[in-house]
Design brief:
CATH architecture of chain A: Orthogonal Bundle
Number of strands of chain A: 0
CATH superfamily of chain A: MetI-like
Largest sheet of chain A: none
CATH superfamily of the domain at 281-500 in chain B: Dipeptide-binding Protein, Domain 3
Subcellular location (chain A): Cell membrane
Number of domains of chain A: 1
CATH class of the domain at 281-500 in chain B: Alpha Beta
Largest sheet of chain B: 11 strands, mixed
Distance between the termini of chain B: 52 Å
Distance between the termini of chain A: 7 Å
Protein name (chain A): Dipeptide ABC transporter permease protein
Radius of gyration of chain A: 24 Å
InterPro entries (chain A): BPD_transp_1_N (IPR045621), MetI-like (IPR000515), MetI-like_sf (IPR035906)
Shape of chain A: globular
Number of strands of chain B: 19
Number of helices of chain B: 19
Structural class of chain B: alpha+beta
Oligomer: heterodimer
Family (chain A): Belongs to the binding-protein-dependent transport system permease family.
Shape of chain B: globular
Radius of gyration of chain B: 25 Å
Membrane topology (chain A): Multi-pass membrane protein
């Protein structure tokens, strides 16, 4: 069993690397044929051709495409993502700053959506066609069909500008800016580590609305999937047997159905989490959230290739990694998969 | 499990209560100024590199120059306490001042900064290079006879008065040579470091700049002009106009710029807020590619000038952003002539097209940045040119795409915008009236007229003559002549609207005077108690 897992693991890691390489090639080519002009962005609109050419050479853009790609790859293998045009910083430094902001937001969102979405899906399946089911369906439909942008603005109008319940755009109020030294990059964690509960609450008041709005969209998906998984199980013999034995509906679901759909649910949750971690571009823009989505958008605008490539690799990696973890969890939790691989 | 769930609910309820309590504070501190804007275009805070407007607004508070141009357009002393003009140049006497680092400001720093500007040779250097200063002659022309004296010799292509205006630009900011030299790497003149740090003698210092997130300026307590009232200036990146509006209404920001027309309108006559319409001296322009088979005909260009509904566009689209003006000099500038009789006249435009031999009309593309108000302007131009038989296809893009197309002459029509670098005819018009070499080989992509392939040797000569004319009255006459010639040539760079930057301020903010060159200084700004 152990040996098999190792080779399986190796195969999957290799798969991951190949996928990342393909992703890299595609992104590089698309990025280079884009009509954006990073040189112009650096030297300014009025620069003369000599200055323009000098900067082009400095950025290595005068070389043939394959050479540029080769240089990039060599750097990458040494852990060097290159320098971002947008900020002048090493891209790794920028990402270390932007990623935690997205990570914090996405994690909170996925927690909220799981804690609401899964029970709601279970209840909807259990009381099929009842008012709970209908409500859950409407809630899910709305979450799926209304753009996050609209929710963001309306949420701000009601809860921020109107009711004054939550903090506004940005991660903390301006007068708290720069007080907490970033250690993990997660404002909620750093403020507690620093012993600044006031900043913690402020940060929480800022993150809660975008997190709920993101969670809502993810929840719609989680609820729908949980419902359909559960329905499938409810028709199985073991459920009927349990019910015949006199087990109540709630206990049937929690004690019998839930463990059986856990594996599928993990995949759904991993996909949702991956989607959220990609950087919810629109949400980040509406809430002036300095995460990876906004970073990538701005990099795309000026054709800042190093930044785009690095961010794409990170996002791609996370996505593949989560899939990978879900698969492993599958194997660990579901004896059938285990046996099949044997 | 049950206990856990119960605990969770209680915890959530408590959190919600706490949130409600903590969010009730919604007012910026009295000693901090908070500005909401879009920082997306800020790519550098090195004054000898960055030229973008928002970057200018930040840098002009970090650095002082020899002289400054007041919002009213007069030259006033800044680091120079006095200057004497002679036939050959200008001699500046420096005042006693220190950089934020504690190092004294000396003539060596001034020479260092101007040399650095021209040797780095980026877009920032364009305005001095245009009048004959360059990397090769700067060390000869800019000298430091003693520690408190700076001598700038004339290049032969500019008058002392006009040179002073160029020296009032942010690009000539005086940087702390001792600090910058500590950070030079690979002959980069300290650029990599200065991009994200400050080394100036201005009223504020740079605490932090996180691109697309925030800029924090701290007060320079030892500022030579006295300690500013604001302890901190926070400039927050708010890319969404509606969100910015909410933040201003809620009191989380004091000043909002880059608001859309509809969001701006909600503050009209609203108590507790004031709108400032800051003139820029620049224009929204319709650039026509004179290399195009149709647009090379002056009659076609004139037809287009008669094919635009200026009044309608001003009313419905430009609103606070612009005012009709088809001469590239703001109407209130000295020696400005009145606009020619270009207005929407479909019949006249059609007959001009027929005279040029295109009575059946033709198609053109129109490139524009997808941004308010330019995108709406493009749509209006499309509709109005359709009436005279010119079919326009709009192609939108982001800033760098459109600028790249403009630089490469890869367009038929394009809507750029300009700004004035000094508040006089030359400052706003020069970029419309000078194109020393129109050949494709010259590849002078930094020149606004070259990009439109508009060959104007006589107007270029006249512009050079005006910049060299020492006598103010004669120069004024040349200014008038330039504008008339520009109109007569049926411009391929047609100014449409004079450009304004509307900003909304919380009424608590006092003494904020928006500067026409995007160099608003903040040292005098104060904030009243809550009203």
């Amino acid at each position: 069993m152990k040996e098999l897992s190792t080779s399986e693991l190796g195969r999957r890691v290799l798969q991951l690397i190949v996928s990342l390489f393909i992703l890299l090639c595609v992104t590089f080519v698309i990025g280079r044929v884009m009509p954006a002009d990073p040189v112009g962005a650096v030297v300014g609109e009025l620069a003369d051709p000599a200055a323009y050419a000098a900067m082009r050479a400095r950025l290595g853009l005068d070389l043939p495409l394959y050479q540029q790609f080769f240089i990039y790859l060599t750097g990458l293998l040494q852990g060097d993502f290159g320098t971002a045009i947008l900020t002048g910083n090493p891209v790794s430094k920028d990402l270390a700053q932007a990623f935690p902001a997205t990570f914090e937001l996405a994690t909170l969102a996925v927690i909220i959506s799981t804690f609401i979405g899964v029970p709601l899906g279970l209840a909807a399946a259990l009381f099929r066609d009842s008012w709970i089911d209908k409500t859950a369906r409407v809630v899910a439909l709305v979450g799926h069909s209304i753009p996050v942008f609209w929710f963001g603005i309306v949420g701000l109008v009601i809860f921020y500008a109107g009711l004054n319940w939550v903090g506004g755009p940005g991660r903390v109020d301006v007068y708290y800016e720069g007080i907490v030294t970033p250690r993990t990059g997660l404002m909620l964690v750093d403020s507690l580590l620093e012993g600044e509960p006031e900043i913690f609450w402020n940060a929480l008041s800022h993150i809660i609305l975008p997190a709920i709005i993101l969670a809502y969209a993810a929840m719609a998906y989680i609820t729908r999937m949980t419902r359909s998984f559960t329905l499938e199980q409810l028709n199985q013999d073991y459920v009927i047997a349990a019910r015949a034995k006199g087990v109540g509906p709630a206990n049937t679901v929690i004690g019998h159905v839930l463990p059986n759909i856990a594996v599928q649910l993990i995949t759904v949750l991993a996909i949702s989490y991956g989607n959220l971690l990609e950087g919810a571009v629109v949400t980040e823009i509406v809430f002036s959230w300095p995460g990876i989505g906004q970073y990538m958008t701005n990099a795309l605008m000026i054709g800042d290739m190093n930044a785009i490539l690095a961010a794409t690799i990170i996002v791609g990696f996370i996505f593949m990694f989560l899939n990978f973890v879900a698969d492993i969890a599958y194997a660990l939790l579901d004896p059938r998969t285990r046996e099949a691989t044997q | 499990m049950k206990h856990f769930r119960k605990g969770l609910f209680v915890g959530a309820a408590i959190s919600l209560l706490a949130l409600t309590a903590s969010a009730a504070v919604a007012e910026t501190p009295k000693d901090q100024l908070v500005i909401g804007t879009s920082l997306a275009q800020v790519l550098s805070l090195d004054p000898q590199q960055a030229t973008e407007g928002k970057a200018n607004e930040i840098m002009c508070n970090l650095y002082d120059r020899l002289v400054l141009a007041t919002p009213g357009g007069k030259i006033a002393p800044q680091l120079a306490e006095s200057w004497a003009i002679d036939d050959k140049g200008i001699t500046f006497k420096l005042r006693e001042a220190a950089f934020a680092s504690g190092n004294p400001v000396t003539s060596k720093d001034v020479v260092f900064s101007l040399t650095r500007l021209l040797k780095m040779n980026q877009a920032a250097a364009a305005n001095l290079k245009r009048v004959g200063y360059n990397a090769d002659n700067v060390e000869k022309l800019v000298t430091a006879p003693d520690e408190r004296t700076v001598r700038i010799d004339l290049s032969g292509e500019v008058t002392p008065e006009l040179l002073l205006y160029r020296l009032a630009m942010v690009t000539t900011s005086v940087v702390d040579s001792v600090e910058v030299e500590k950070h030079v790497k690979d002959n980069d003149y300290g650029n990599a470091w200065l991009r994200t740090n400050s080394a100036g003698s201005g009223p504020f210092t740079l605490n932090r700049w996180t691109p697309n997130e925030i800029v924090i300026l701290d007060v320079n307590k030892d500022y030579v002009g006295g300690e500013p009232k604001m302890r901190r200036v926070v400039i927050r990146h708010v890319p969404e106009s509606q969100v910015e509006r909410l933040m201003l209404e809620r009191g989380d920001i004091d000043i909002a710029s880059a608001l859309s027309a509809s969001d701006l309108a909600t503050f009209q006559d609203k108590q507790g807020f004031q709108i400032q319409r800051v003139p820029t001296g620049g224009f929204y322009v319709l650039s026509m590619n004179a290399g195009n088979q149709y647009l090379s005909h002056p009659k076609v260009r004139e037809a287009i000038a008669y094919g635009i509904d200026y009044a309608g566009i001003e009313k419905t689209i430009m609103g606070p952003y612009g005012r009709v003006r088809t001469v590239p000099v703001p109407e209130n500038y000295e020696y400005a002539i009145s606009s020619p009789d270009w207005h929407l006249d479909v019949e006249k435009a059609k007959s001009l097209l027929a005279e040029a031999g295109f009575k059946d009309g033709f198609s053109l593309s129109l490139k524009t940045i997808a941004q308010t108000p330019r995108i709406d302007l493009a749509t209006a131009i499309q509709a109005s040119l359709a009436q005279i038989g010119i079919k326009v296809n709009i192609q939108q893009g982001n800033g760098s795409e459109i600028i790249a197309a403009h630089r490469a002459r890869d367009f038929d029509l394009l809507i750029p915008q300009t700004g004035a670098y000094m508040p006089n005819v030359l400052g706003s018009m020069e970029q419309f009236s000078s194109n020393p070499d129109n050949s494709k080989e010259a590849n002078n992509a930094g020149n606004f007229v070259w990009r439109s392939a508009w060959d104007i040797p006589e107007l270029t000569k006249l512009t050079a003559k005006a910049s060299l004319e020492p006598d103010a009255k004669k120069r004024g006459e040349l200014y008038v002549e330039m504008q008339k010639m520009f109109v007569d040539l049926k411009p391929a760079v047609l100014p449409l609207f004079e450009r304004y930057e509307p900003i909304v301020l919380n009424a608590r903010v006092k003494d904020y005077v928006g500067h026409p060159n995007m160099t608003t200084r903040l040292e005098a700004v104060t904030k009243a108690e809550t009203e």
